[in-house]
Protein backbone atom coordinates (compact mmCIF):
# COMPACT_ATOMS: atom_id res chain seq x y z
CA UNK A 1 0.00 0.00 0.00
CA UNK A 2 2.86 2.29 0.74
CA UNK A 3 4.82 1.68 -2.37
CA UNK A 4 2.06 1.97 -4.92
CA UNK A 5 1.57 5.54 -3.74
CA UNK A 6 4.63 7.37 -4.92
CA UNK A 7 3.56 10.61 -3.37
CA UNK A 8 3.20 9.12 0.07
CA UNK A 9 6.75 7.92 -0.03
CA UNK A 10 8.17 11.11 -1.34
CA UNK A 11 6.43 13.80 0.60
CA UNK A 12 4.68 12.36 3.65
CA UNK A 13 7.49 10.07 4.51
CA UNK A 14 10.17 12.58 3.95
CA UNK A 15 8.41 15.16 6.10
CA UNK A 16 7.65 12.54 8.71
CA UNK A 17 11.25 11.49 8.59
CA UNK A 18 12.32 15.09 8.91
CA UNK A 19 10.28 15.59 11.99
CA UNK A 20 11.41 12.36 13.50
CA UNK A 21 14.93 13.43 12.73
CA UNK A 22 15.73 10.17 11.05
CA UNK A 23 15.12 8.18 7.90
CA UNK A 24 12.38 5.61 8.14
CA UNK A 25 14.26 2.52 7.11
CA UNK A 26 12.26 -0.16 5.29
CA UNK A 27 9.34 2.21 5.25
CA UNK A 28 7.73 0.35 2.39
CA UNK A 29 7.47 -2.76 4.52
CA UNK A 30 5.60 -1.06 7.32
CA UNK A 31 2.09 -2.47 7.77
CA UNK A 32 -0.59 0.16 7.13
CA UNK A 33 -1.64 0.10 10.81
CA UNK A 34 1.54 1.94 11.73
CA UNK A 35 0.56 4.95 9.64
CA UNK A 36 -1.18 7.87 11.33
CA UNK A 37 -4.88 7.49 10.56
CA UNK A 38 -4.99 10.40 8.16
CA UNK A 39 -2.33 8.91 5.95
CA UNK A 40 -3.84 5.49 5.69
CA UNK A 41 -4.82 4.57 2.15
CA UNK A 42 -8.55 4.28 1.67
CA UNK A 43 -10.14 0.86 1.78
CA UNK A 44 -12.00 0.66 -1.47
CA UNK A 45 -13.69 -2.64 -0.89
CA UNK A 46 -17.02 -3.15 0.80
CA UNK A 47 -17.71 -6.80 1.61
CA UNK A 48 -21.13 -8.15 0.67
CA UNK A 49 -21.92 -5.24 -1.63
CA UNK A 50 -22.13 -5.09 -5.41
CA UNK A 51 -18.87 -3.86 -7.01
CA UNK A 52 -20.74 -1.42 -9.27
CA UNK A 53 -22.15 0.63 -6.41
CA UNK A 54 -20.89 4.23 -6.33
CA UNK A 55 -18.79 5.06 -3.26
CA UNK A 56 -19.34 8.67 -2.18
CA UNK A 57 -17.47 8.29 1.09
CA UNK A 58 -15.67 5.35 2.64
CA UNK A 59 -15.18 6.83 6.11
CA UNK A 60 -18.03 6.77 7.07
CA UNK A 61 -19.52 4.57 4.33
CA UNK A 62 -21.93 6.39 2.01
CA UNK A 63 -22.69 4.40 -1.09
CA UNK A 64 -25.40 4.58 -3.76
CA UNK A 65 -26.58 2.44 -6.66
CA UNK A 66 -26.49 3.52 -10.31
CA UNK A 67 -30.17 3.46 -11.42
CA UNK A 68 -29.82 0.43 -13.72
CA UNK A 69 -28.64 -1.63 -10.74
CA UNK A 70 -32.03 -1.08 -9.11
CA UNK A 71 -33.98 -2.91 -11.82
CA UNK A 72 -34.98 -5.83 -9.55
CA UNK A 73 -38.59 -5.72 -8.34
CA UNK A 74 -37.29 -6.19 -4.79
CA UNK A 75 -33.89 -4.65 -4.09
CA UNK A 76 -31.30 -7.31 -3.19
CA UNK A 77 -29.19 -6.57 -0.12
CA UNK A 78 -25.99 -6.20 -2.11
CA UNK A 79 -27.51 -3.37 -4.20
CA UNK A 80 -28.99 -1.43 -1.31
CA UNK A 81 -27.52 2.02 -0.69
CA UNK A 82 -25.69 2.81 2.55
CA UNK A 83 -25.95 6.07 4.46
CA UNK A 84 -23.81 5.67 7.57
CA UNK A 85 -23.44 8.58 9.95
CA UNK A 86 -21.08 6.71 12.25
CA UNK A 87 -19.08 3.51 12.54
CA UNK A 88 -21.15 0.29 12.61
CA UNK A 89 -20.66 -2.03 15.60
CA UNK A 90 -18.17 -4.85 15.13
CA UNK A 91 -18.35 -8.43 16.34
CA UNK A 92 -22.11 -8.41 16.90
CA UNK A 93 -23.24 -11.30 19.15
CA UNK A 94 -26.92 -11.87 18.42
CA UNK A 95 -27.34 -13.86 21.64
CA UNK A 96 -26.33 -10.81 23.66
CA UNK A 97 -28.26 -8.26 21.63
CA UNK A 98 -31.15 -6.61 23.45
CA UNK A 99 -33.74 -3.99 22.60
CA UNK A 100 -34.93 -1.69 25.38
CA UNK A 101 -38.13 0.37 25.34
CA UNK A 102 -38.27 3.29 27.76
CA UNK A 103 -38.85 7.05 27.87
CA UNK A 104 -41.00 9.69 29.62
CA UNK A 105 -44.12 8.47 27.87
CA UNK A 106 -43.48 4.73 28.27
CA UNK A 107 -45.60 3.10 30.99
CA UNK A 108 -42.76 0.70 31.81
CA UNK A 109 -39.19 0.07 30.79
CA UNK A 110 -38.74 -3.28 29.08
CA UNK A 111 -35.89 -5.16 27.45
CA UNK A 112 -36.10 -7.99 24.97
CA UNK A 113 -33.48 -10.31 23.57
CA UNK A 114 -33.72 -10.99 19.84
CA UNK A 115 -35.08 -14.43 20.68
CA UNK A 116 -37.79 -12.93 22.90
CA UNK A 117 -38.79 -10.46 20.21
CA UNK A 118 -39.12 -13.27 17.69
CA UNK A 119 -41.06 -15.53 20.06
CA UNK A 120 -43.31 -13.06 21.75
CA UNK A 121 -44.67 -11.05 18.83
CA UNK A 122 -46.32 -11.88 15.53
CA UNK A 123 -44.05 -11.70 12.47
CA UNK A 124 -44.86 -9.48 9.51
CA UNK A 125 -43.26 -9.04 6.11
CA UNK A 126 -43.60 -5.93 3.93
CA UNK A 127 -41.83 -4.48 0.94
CA UNK A 128 -40.93 -0.96 2.01
CA UNK A 129 -39.35 1.81 0.01
CA UNK A 130 -36.55 3.61 1.78
CA UNK A 131 -34.97 6.72 0.32
CA UNK A 132 -32.32 8.95 1.83
CA UNK A 133 -33.67 12.46 2.49
CA UNK A 134 -30.63 13.81 0.63
CA UNK A 135 -31.02 11.65 -2.48
CA UNK A 136 -30.48 13.96 -5.48
CA UNK A 137 -28.57 16.56 -3.45
CA UNK A 138 -25.96 16.85 -6.21
CA UNK A 139 -28.55 18.59 -8.40
CA UNK A 140 -28.91 21.71 -6.30
CA UNK A 141 -27.18 25.02 -6.99
CA UNK A 142 -25.61 26.75 -5.09
CA UNK A 143 -24.14 23.41 -3.97
CA UNK A 144 -25.76 22.01 -0.82
CA UNK A 145 -23.53 20.40 1.78
CA UNK A 146 -23.13 16.74 2.58
CA UNK A 147 -22.79 13.57 0.57
CA UNK A 148 -23.46 14.40 -3.06
CA UNK A 149 -26.10 11.76 -3.78
CA UNK A 150 -27.29 11.55 -7.37
CA UNK A 151 -30.15 9.10 -8.07
CA UNK A 152 -29.54 5.85 -6.27
CA UNK A 153 -29.96 6.37 -2.51
CA UNK A 154 -33.24 4.49 -2.68
CA UNK A 155 -34.34 0.88 -2.32
CA UNK A 156 -37.36 -1.31 -1.78
CA UNK A 157 -36.46 -4.46 0.10
CA UNK A 158 -38.69 -7.08 1.68
CA UNK A 159 -38.36 -6.62 5.42
CA UNK A 160 -39.44 -9.11 8.08
CA UNK A 161 -39.83 -8.40 11.76
CA UNK A 162 -42.41 -7.44 14.34
CA UNK A 163 -44.70 -4.45 14.35
CA UNK A 164 -43.24 -1.58 16.29
CA UNK A 165 -46.70 -0.91 17.74
CA UNK A 166 -46.95 -4.42 19.20
CA UNK A 167 -43.70 -3.92 21.07
CA UNK A 168 -44.51 -0.36 22.15
CA UNK A 169 -47.92 -1.51 23.42
CA UNK A 170 -46.30 -4.34 25.36
CA UNK A 171 -44.23 -1.76 27.24
CA UNK A 172 -47.22 0.56 27.45
CA UNK A 173 -47.76 3.84 25.65
CA UNK A 174 -48.64 6.80 27.88
CA UNK A 175 -51.36 9.24 26.86
CA UNK A 176 -48.67 11.92 26.65
CA UNK A 177 -46.78 10.07 23.89
CA UNK A 178 -45.84 12.34 20.98
CA UNK A 179 -42.81 10.84 19.27
CA UNK A 180 -40.49 7.85 19.35
CA UNK A 181 -36.71 8.13 19.12
CA UNK A 182 -34.13 5.42 18.47
CA UNK A 183 -30.61 4.72 19.62
CA UNK A 184 -28.27 2.39 17.74
CA UNK A 185 -24.95 0.75 18.52
CA UNK A 186 -22.97 2.67 15.92
CA UNK A 187 -20.33 5.06 17.27
CA UNK A 188 -19.38 8.64 16.45
CA UNK A 189 -16.60 9.00 13.88
CA UNK A 190 -14.59 11.28 16.20
CA UNK A 191 -14.17 8.31 18.54
CA UNK A 192 -16.05 10.06 21.35
CA UNK A 193 -17.96 7.19 22.97
CA UNK A 194 -20.36 9.55 24.74
CA UNK A 195 -21.63 10.99 21.45
CA UNK A 196 -24.35 9.49 19.25
CA UNK A 197 -23.76 9.70 15.51
CA UNK A 198 -27.51 9.87 14.90
CA UNK A 199 -30.67 9.40 16.96
CA UNK A 200 -33.83 10.23 15.07
CA UNK A 201 -37.41 9.00 15.08
CA UNK A 202 -41.01 9.56 13.98
CA UNK A 203 -44.27 10.91 15.42
CA UNK A 204 -46.22 8.33 17.42
CA UNK A 205 -48.90 8.12 14.67
CA UNK A 206 -46.33 6.91 12.14
CA UNK A 207 -44.83 4.55 14.73
CA UNK A 208 -48.24 2.90 15.24
CA UNK A 209 -48.88 2.12 11.56
CA UNK A 210 -49.09 -1.56 10.60
CA UNK A 211 -46.12 -1.30 8.25
CA UNK A 212 -43.75 0.25 10.82
CA UNK A 213 -41.40 -2.59 11.65
CA UNK A 214 -38.63 -3.64 13.96
CA UNK A 215 -36.89 -5.88 11.42
CA UNK A 216 -34.20 -8.54 11.62
CA UNK A 217 -34.41 -9.81 8.06
CA UNK A 218 -34.09 -8.42 4.54
CA UNK A 219 -35.32 -10.58 1.66
CA UNK A 220 -35.38 -13.64 3.92
CA UNK A 221 -31.78 -13.25 5.06
CA UNK A 222 -29.92 -11.45 7.82
CA UNK A 223 -29.80 -7.69 7.26
CA UNK A 224 -26.43 -6.74 5.67
CA UNK A 225 -24.03 -5.37 8.30
CA UNK A 226 -23.93 -1.90 6.72
CA UNK A 227 -27.74 -1.77 6.57
CA UNK A 228 -28.24 -2.40 10.29
CA UNK A 229 -27.54 -6.04 11.25
CA UNK A 230 -28.91 -7.51 13.44
CA UNK A 231 -31.90 -5.22 14.10
CA UNK A 232 -33.31 -2.00 12.71
CA UNK A 233 -36.41 0.09 12.36
CA UNK A 234 -38.07 0.39 8.96
CA UNK A 235 -40.50 3.22 8.17
CA UNK A 236 -41.37 3.06 4.48
CA UNK A 237 -41.90 6.34 2.64
CA UNK A 238 -40.09 8.57 5.15
CA UNK A 239 -36.48 9.76 5.02
CA UNK A 240 -34.47 6.58 5.59
CA UNK A 241 -32.64 8.26 8.48
CA UNK A 242 -35.82 7.70 10.56
CA UNK A 243 -35.25 3.95 10.26
CA UNK A 244 -32.56 3.50 12.92
CA UNK A 245 -29.95 0.82 12.29
CA UNK A 246 -28.15 -1.45 14.81
CA UNK A 247 -31.16 -0.75 17.00
CA UNK A 248 -30.74 -1.16 20.77
CA UNK A 249 -33.15 1.31 22.33
CA UNK A 250 -36.41 3.07 21.54
CA UNK A 251 -37.67 5.93 23.68
CA UNK A 252 -41.32 6.96 23.78
CA UNK A 253 -41.14 10.73 24.14
CA UNK A 254 -43.63 13.26 25.46
CA UNK A 255 -42.26 15.80 22.98
CA UNK A 256 -40.63 15.77 19.55
CA UNK A 257 -37.49 13.65 19.92
CA UNK A 258 -34.40 15.84 20.23
CA UNK A 259 -31.63 13.33 19.50
CA UNK A 260 -28.64 13.87 17.24
CA UNK A 261 -29.68 15.07 13.75
CA UNK A 262 -33.30 15.72 14.79
CA UNK A 263 -32.51 19.35 15.52
CA UNK A 264 -30.75 22.25 13.78
CA UNK A 265 -30.94 21.95 10.01
CA UNK A 266 -30.46 18.18 9.73
CA UNK A 267 -33.21 16.43 7.77
CA UNK A 268 -35.14 19.70 7.79
CA UNK A 269 -36.24 22.14 5.11
CA UNK A 270 -37.43 25.76 5.30
CA UNK A 271 -41.14 26.11 6.13
CA UNK A 272 -41.56 28.36 3.10
CA UNK A 273 -39.96 28.39 -0.38
CA UNK A 274 -36.66 30.29 -0.45
CA UNK A 275 -34.57 31.90 -3.16
CA UNK A 276 -31.50 29.73 -3.97
CA UNK A 277 -28.62 30.53 -1.64
CA UNK A 278 -30.74 32.19 1.06
CA UNK A 279 -29.51 31.99 4.66
CA UNK A 280 -32.51 30.65 6.53
CA UNK A 281 -32.76 31.07 10.33
CA UNK A 282 -32.83 27.73 12.17
CA UNK A 283 -36.25 28.36 13.70
CA UNK A 284 -37.73 28.56 10.19
CA UNK A 285 -36.89 24.92 9.41
CA UNK A 286 -39.32 22.02 9.77
CA UNK A 287 -38.73 18.26 9.99
CA UNK A 288 -39.14 16.30 6.75
CA UNK A 289 -41.86 13.67 7.06
CA UNK A 290 -43.32 11.79 4.06
CA UNK A 291 -41.01 11.86 1.01
CA UNK A 292 -42.27 13.36 -2.28
CA UNK A 293 -43.38 11.44 -5.39
CA UNK A 294 -40.50 10.12 -7.47
CA UNK A 295 -39.53 7.52 -10.04
CA UNK A 296 -36.52 5.89 -11.64
CA UNK A 297 -35.85 4.43 -15.06
CA UNK A 298 -33.97 1.24 -14.24
CA UNK A 299 -33.91 -0.32 -17.71
CA UNK A 300 -32.27 0.26 -20.11
CA UNK A 301 -29.10 1.66 -18.62
CA UNK A 302 -28.53 5.21 -19.87
CA UNK A 303 -26.54 5.36 -23.12
CA UNK A 304 -28.40 2.64 -25.02
CA UNK A 305 -28.07 2.76 -28.82
CA UNK A 306 -30.60 0.98 -30.99
CA UNK A 307 -31.57 0.79 -34.61
CA UNK A 308 -34.37 2.87 -36.07
CA UNK A 309 -37.60 0.91 -36.29
CA UNK A 310 -36.96 -1.11 -33.15
CA UNK A 311 -39.19 -0.58 -30.15
CA UNK A 312 -37.60 -0.02 -26.79
CA UNK A 313 -38.91 -1.58 -23.61
CA UNK A 314 -38.48 0.82 -20.71
CA UNK A 315 -38.92 -0.18 -17.08
CA UNK A 316 -38.64 1.28 -13.63
CA UNK A 317 -40.25 1.96 -10.27
CA UNK A 318 -42.19 4.83 -8.74
CA UNK A 319 -43.01 5.70 -5.12
CA UNK A 320 -44.71 8.54 -3.29
CA UNK A 321 -43.89 8.58 0.43
CA UNK A 322 -47.04 7.76 2.43
CA UNK A 323 -49.17 8.02 -0.71
CA UNK A 324 -49.56 5.86 -3.80
CA UNK A 325 -48.46 6.62 -7.33
CA UNK A 326 -51.45 7.02 -9.63
CA UNK A 327 -49.76 7.69 -12.98
CA UNK A 328 -46.40 7.31 -14.68
CA UNK A 329 -45.66 9.18 -17.90
CA UNK A 330 -42.71 9.10 -20.27
CA UNK A 331 -41.46 11.70 -22.71
CA UNK A 332 -38.90 11.38 -25.50
CA UNK A 333 -39.09 15.06 -26.47
CA UNK A 334 -38.07 16.87 -23.27
CA UNK A 335 -41.58 16.98 -21.92
CA UNK A 336 -43.38 18.38 -24.99
CA UNK A 337 -45.51 15.25 -25.22
CA UNK A 338 -46.13 12.44 -22.72
CA UNK A 339 -47.02 8.76 -23.04
CA UNK A 340 -48.62 6.87 -20.20
CA UNK A 341 -46.80 3.76 -18.97
CA UNK A 342 -48.38 0.62 -17.48
CA UNK A 343 -48.28 1.10 -13.76
CA UNK A 344 -48.69 -1.76 -11.28
CA UNK A 345 -50.33 -1.44 -7.89
CA UNK A 346 -48.00 -1.70 -4.90
CA UNK A 347 -47.55 -5.19 -3.39
CA UNK A 348 -48.45 -3.58 -0.07
CA UNK A 349 -48.78 -0.04 1.25
CA UNK A 350 -45.44 1.88 1.10
CA UNK A 351 -43.86 -0.47 -1.45
CA UNK A 352 -42.59 1.05 -4.66
CA UNK A 353 -44.63 0.35 -7.80
CA UNK A 354 -43.26 -1.12 -11.02
CA UNK A 355 -43.98 0.36 -14.41
CA UNK A 356 -43.13 -0.45 -18.00
CA UNK A 357 -43.74 0.92 -21.46
CA UNK A 358 -42.76 0.29 -25.05
CA UNK A 359 -41.43 3.32 -26.88
CA UNK A 360 -40.85 3.92 -30.57
CA UNK A 361 -38.78 6.70 -32.08
CA UNK A 362 -39.64 8.69 -35.23
CA UNK A 363 -36.11 9.09 -36.66
CA UNK A 364 -32.41 8.67 -36.03
CA UNK A 365 -30.76 10.80 -33.44
CA UNK A 366 -30.21 11.65 -29.80
CA UNK A 367 -33.09 11.27 -27.37
CA UNK A 368 -33.64 11.60 -23.69
CA UNK A 369 -36.27 9.52 -21.97
CA UNK A 370 -37.87 11.35 -19.09
CA UNK A 371 -40.07 9.69 -16.47
CA UNK A 372 -42.65 11.59 -14.46
CA UNK A 373 -44.76 10.10 -11.68
CA UNK A 374 -47.92 11.60 -10.22
CA UNK A 375 -49.17 10.74 -6.72
CA UNK A 376 -52.71 9.97 -5.56
CA UNK A 377 -53.23 13.65 -4.71
CA UNK A 378 -52.38 14.72 -8.27
CA UNK A 379 -48.91 16.07 -7.44
CA UNK A 380 -46.22 15.30 -10.04
CA UNK A 381 -42.45 15.32 -10.17
CA UNK A 382 -41.00 18.61 -11.42
CA UNK A 383 -39.00 18.47 -14.65
CA UNK A 384 -36.39 20.89 -13.33
CA UNK A 385 -34.74 20.83 -9.93
CA UNK A 386 -37.37 21.60 -7.29
CA UNK A 387 -37.14 24.31 -4.63
CA UNK A 388 -33.60 24.89 -3.41
CA UNK A 389 -33.07 24.36 0.31
CA UNK A 390 -29.90 24.90 2.35
CA UNK A 391 -29.15 21.23 3.05
CA UNK A 392 -30.20 19.93 -0.36
CA UNK A 393 -33.03 17.58 0.55
CA UNK A 394 -36.02 16.30 -1.46
CA UNK A 395 -34.79 16.63 -5.02
CA UNK A 396 -37.45 14.63 -6.82
CA UNK A 397 -36.88 16.02 -10.32
CA UNK A 398 -37.75 13.68 -13.21
CA UNK A 399 -35.14 11.03 -13.91
CA UNK A 400 -33.82 10.91 -17.47
CA UNK A 401 -31.63 8.64 -19.53
CA UNK A 402 -29.94 9.11 -22.91
CA UNK A 403 -30.74 6.94 -25.92
CA UNK A 404 -29.35 7.01 -29.45
CA UNK A 405 -31.28 5.77 -32.48
CA UNK A 406 -29.00 4.69 -35.29
CA UNK A 407 -29.58 3.84 -38.98
CA UNK A 408 -31.33 0.48 -39.33
CA UNK B 1 -9.77 8.11 21.92
CA UNK B 2 -10.18 11.81 22.62
CA UNK B 3 -6.61 11.78 23.81
CA UNK B 4 -5.70 10.06 20.57
CA UNK B 5 -7.25 12.88 18.63
CA UNK B 6 -5.45 15.64 20.44
CA UNK B 7 -2.18 13.76 19.97
CA UNK B 8 -3.10 13.50 16.35
CA UNK B 9 -3.80 17.19 16.29
CA UNK B 10 -0.40 17.87 17.78
CA UNK B 11 1.28 15.75 15.13
CA UNK B 12 -0.66 17.69 12.53
CA UNK B 13 0.62 21.03 13.75
CA UNK B 14 4.09 19.63 13.93
CA UNK B 15 3.85 18.25 10.44
CA UNK B 16 2.53 21.57 9.25
CA UNK B 17 5.46 23.52 10.60
CA UNK B 18 7.74 20.99 8.96
CA UNK B 19 5.96 21.02 5.63
CA UNK B 20 6.10 24.76 5.50
CA UNK B 21 9.84 24.85 5.84
CA UNK B 22 10.42 21.82 3.65
CA UNK B 23 8.22 23.08 0.87
CA UNK B 24 9.16 26.71 1.04
CA UNK B 25 12.75 25.69 0.58
CA UNK B 26 11.90 23.61 -2.48
CA UNK B 27 9.68 26.41 -3.77
CA UNK B 28 6.85 24.11 -4.78
CA UNK B 29 4.48 25.54 -7.35
CA UNK B 30 0.71 25.34 -7.43
CA UNK B 31 -0.36 22.33 -9.44
CA UNK B 32 -3.61 20.75 -10.47
CA UNK B 33 -2.47 17.34 -9.40
CA UNK B 34 -4.10 15.28 -6.70
CA UNK B 35 -2.64 13.51 -3.74
CA UNK B 36 -3.31 9.89 -4.77
CA UNK B 37 -3.86 8.87 -1.17
CA UNK B 38 -6.62 11.32 -0.22
CA UNK B 39 -7.75 12.71 -3.57
CA UNK B 40 -7.10 16.25 -2.27
CA UNK B 41 -5.30 18.74 -4.53
CA UNK B 42 -1.55 18.99 -4.07
CA UNK B 43 -0.59 22.25 -2.44
CA UNK B 44 1.74 23.55 0.18
CA UNK B 45 -1.17 23.44 2.64
CA UNK B 46 -2.12 19.85 1.78
CA UNK B 47 -0.48 18.29 4.83
CA UNK B 48 -2.09 20.80 7.12
CA UNK B 49 -5.53 20.11 5.67
CA UNK B 50 -5.02 16.36 5.83
CA UNK B 51 -4.01 16.53 9.44
CA UNK B 52 -6.91 18.79 10.43
CA UNK B 53 -9.63 17.35 8.26
CA UNK B 54 -9.24 13.61 7.74
CA UNK B 55 -9.08 12.29 11.31
CA UNK B 56 -12.80 11.57 11.52
CA UNK B 57 -13.92 11.10 7.94
CA UNK B 58 -12.27 10.59 4.59
CA UNK B 59 -11.29 13.53 2.40
CA UNK B 60 -14.08 12.55 0.02
CA UNK B 61 -16.44 14.60 2.17
CA UNK B 62 -14.33 17.61 1.20
CA UNK B 63 -13.67 16.79 -2.44
CA UNK B 64 -17.33 16.18 -3.29
CA UNK B 65 -18.47 19.49 -1.78
CA UNK B 66 -18.16 23.06 -3.09
CA UNK B 67 -18.56 26.13 -0.88
CA UNK B 68 -17.44 29.71 -0.77
CA UNK B 69 -14.94 30.68 1.94
CA UNK B 70 -17.86 31.74 4.15
CA UNK B 71 -19.57 28.44 3.42
CA UNK B 72 -16.47 26.45 4.44
CA UNK B 73 -16.14 28.53 7.58
CA UNK B 74 -19.78 27.74 8.40
CA UNK B 75 -19.12 24.01 7.94
CA UNK B 76 -16.17 24.21 10.32
CA UNK B 77 -18.26 26.06 12.90
CA UNK B 78 -21.03 23.47 12.50
CA UNK B 79 -18.58 20.62 13.08
CA UNK B 80 -17.15 22.41 16.08
CA UNK B 81 -20.61 22.95 17.52
CA UNK B 82 -22.00 19.51 16.85
CA UNK B 83 -19.33 17.02 15.81
CA UNK B 84 -16.39 17.42 18.21
CA UNK B 85 -14.16 19.30 15.80
CA UNK B 86 -11.45 21.17 17.69
CA UNK B 87 -10.41 24.81 17.44
CA UNK B 88 -8.18 25.02 14.36
CA UNK B 89 -6.29 27.90 15.96
CA UNK B 90 -3.75 29.65 13.82
CA UNK B 91 -4.04 27.11 11.05
CA UNK B 92 -7.66 28.05 10.25
CA UNK B 93 -6.85 30.77 7.70
CA UNK B 94 -4.50 28.43 5.84
CA UNK B 95 -7.12 25.66 5.84
CA UNK B 96 -9.71 28.11 4.53
CA UNK B 97 -7.28 29.41 1.89
CA UNK B 98 -6.83 25.88 0.67
CA UNK B 99 -10.54 24.98 0.69
CA UNK B 100 -11.49 28.21 -1.05
CA UNK B 101 -8.77 27.82 -3.66
CA UNK B 102 -9.71 24.30 -4.78
CA UNK B 103 -13.26 23.63 -3.60
CA UNK B 104 -15.27 26.75 -4.42
CA UNK B 105 -18.53 26.49 -6.35
CA UNK B 106 -18.02 26.06 -10.07
CA UNK B 107 -20.19 27.90 -12.60
CA UNK B 108 -23.66 26.49 -12.49
CA UNK B 109 -24.23 23.43 -14.62
CA UNK B 110 -27.90 22.81 -14.31
CA UNK B 111 -30.97 21.78 -16.21
CA UNK B 112 -32.09 25.34 -15.85
CA UNK B 113 -30.29 28.29 -14.37
CA UNK B 114 -31.62 29.98 -11.31
CA UNK B 115 -33.09 33.40 -11.99
CA UNK B 116 -30.43 36.03 -11.30
CA UNK B 117 -30.28 39.77 -10.55
CA UNK B 118 -33.94 39.89 -9.71
CA UNK B 119 -35.24 43.43 -9.18
CA UNK B 120 -37.94 43.08 -6.56
CA UNK B 121 -40.88 45.43 -6.71
CA UNK B 122 -44.29 45.58 -5.24
CA UNK B 123 -46.99 44.81 -7.75
CA UNK B 124 -49.73 47.44 -7.69
CA UNK B 125 -53.21 46.62 -8.88
From TrEMBL, chain A:
Cofactor entry: Mo-molybdopterin
MF annotations from Gene Ontology: heme binding; molybdenum ion binding; molybdopterin cofactor binding; sulfite oxidase activity
Domain Moybdenum cofactor oxidoreductase dimerisation as annotated: residue spans: 287-404
SUPFAM superfamilies listed in its UniProt record: E set domains, Oxidoreductase molybdopterin-binding domain
Record has NAD as a keyword: no
Residue ranges of every copy of the Oxidoreductase molybdopterin-binding domain listed in the record: 91-259
Entry keywords, A to Z: Metal-binding, Molybdenum, Oxidoreductase, Signal
GO terms under biological process: sulfur compound metabolic process
InterPro entries recorded: Ig_E-set, MoCF_OxRdtse_dimer, Mopterin_OxRdtase_euk, OxRdtase_Mopterin-bd_dom, OxRdtase_Mopterin-bd_sf
Signal peptide extent: 1-27
Pfam family, one: Oxidored_molyb
Name assigned to this protein: Molybdopterin containing oxidoreductase
Species: Jiulongibacter sediminis
Upper classification of the organism: Bacteria, Pseudomonadati, Bacteroidota, Cytophagia, Cytophagales
Amino acid sequence: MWNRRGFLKKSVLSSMATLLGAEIVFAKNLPPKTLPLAFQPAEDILPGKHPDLIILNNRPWNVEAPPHLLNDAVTPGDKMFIRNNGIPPEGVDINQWTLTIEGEAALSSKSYTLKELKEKFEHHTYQLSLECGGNGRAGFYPPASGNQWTEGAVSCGEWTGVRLKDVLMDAGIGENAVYIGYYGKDTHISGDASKNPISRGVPIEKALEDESLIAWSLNGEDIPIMNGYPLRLVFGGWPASCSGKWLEKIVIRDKVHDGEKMTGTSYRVPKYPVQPGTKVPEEDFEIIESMPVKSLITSPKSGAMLALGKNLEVKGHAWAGDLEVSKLQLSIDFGATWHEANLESPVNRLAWQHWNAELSFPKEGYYEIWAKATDSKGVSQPMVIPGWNPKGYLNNACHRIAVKITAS
Amino acid sequence: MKKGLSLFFAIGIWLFSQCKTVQNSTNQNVSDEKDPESGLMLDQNLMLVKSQCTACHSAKLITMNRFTRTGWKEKIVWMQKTQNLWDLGESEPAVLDYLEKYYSPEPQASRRKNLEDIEWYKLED
